Amino acid sequence: MEEPATSRAVLREELEVARERDPATEGVSDATIAAGWPGVQAVLAHRLAHALMEAGVPFLPFLVSWIARAVTGVEIHPGAKIGRRFFVDHGSGVVIGETAELGDDVTIYQGVTLGGTGFETGKRHPTVEDNVTIGSGAKLLGPVRVGHGAKIGANAVVIEDVPPNATVVGNPGHTVRVEGRRPEGPDADWIHLPDPIQEAVQSLSERIAELEREVAELSGRPPRDAPLESPPQRKGPSPAGG
């Protein structure tokens, strides 16, 4: 998680990341992005607050963090360690705790919490490795580790470690794959992720219906009505990336 050497390099890199991962930046000037993108502002403010904390400056890191939260709606503790090319899309409601550690090229969306559990001390917040994408409203709680390239679906609740390149959905989080493979890129297609609970219920329902038909054949009674079908998986182009 090597930091860019100068403040100008930091600013340039954050603006480039915003352009790469947010289609809304098309045709927008760098000055407008710096002034109007809360996620970019929050990350830049955290870089300053963290540097001040690392230098042992009292009070000021927390003042910078408080101002950033008031302005952007993003709360990042000055002690959190965040790698390069970190992007917060929209950002409102994001909370990142003191002992959280994020690698390079991490993308998170609004409402994400990287929080602790209870009143334990020491390492109590998540560790997120490189190239991870975390969807809107997801909660990662405790000192869990999210492996390289993993994707956390919107509103998932993660309380256990996530393997590298896995896709996690649900509460509590379940690891899934989409059509036998993992979704690619930071603009994960959240709408088309499968629901493992729905799939399990549907499988059980089909098995029960099959058993009821067999019992009906043996007993000579007419079978019961077929079980309700689960809603079909959504089809169509991915709406992600905005």
List the helices and strands and how they pair.
Blueprint: H1 7-21, H2 30-36, H3 38-54, H4 60-72, E1 75-76, E2 81-82, E3 87-89, E4 95-96, E5 101-102, E6 107-109, E7 113-115, E8 127-128, E9 133-134, E10 139-141, E11 145-146, E12 151-152, E13 157-158, E14 167-169, E15 174-176, H5 196-219
Parallel strand pairs: 1-4, 2-5, 3-6, 4-7, 5-8, 6-9, 7-10, 8-11, 9-12, 10-13, 12-14
Antiparallel strand pairs: 14-15
Helix pairs in contact: 3-4
Structure in words:
With 242 residues, the chain is an alpha/beta fold. The chain has one domain: 3 Solenoid (UDP N-Acetylglucosamine Acyltransferase, domain 1), CATH 2.160.10. The chain contains 5 helices and 15 strands. The protein has helices spanning 7-21, 30-36, 38-54, 60-72, 196-219, and strands spanning 75-76, 81-82, 87-89, 95-96, 101-102, 107-109, 113-115, 127-128, 133-134, 139-141, 145-146, 151-152, 157-158, 167-169, 174-176. The strands form 3 sheets. Strands 3-6-9-12-14-15 form a 6-stranded mixed sheet. A 5-stranded parallel sheet has the order 1-4-7-10-13. A 4-stranded parallel sheet has the order 2-5-8-11, with no helix packed on it. A hairpin with a 4-residue loop joins strand 14 (167-169) and strand 15. It is elongated.
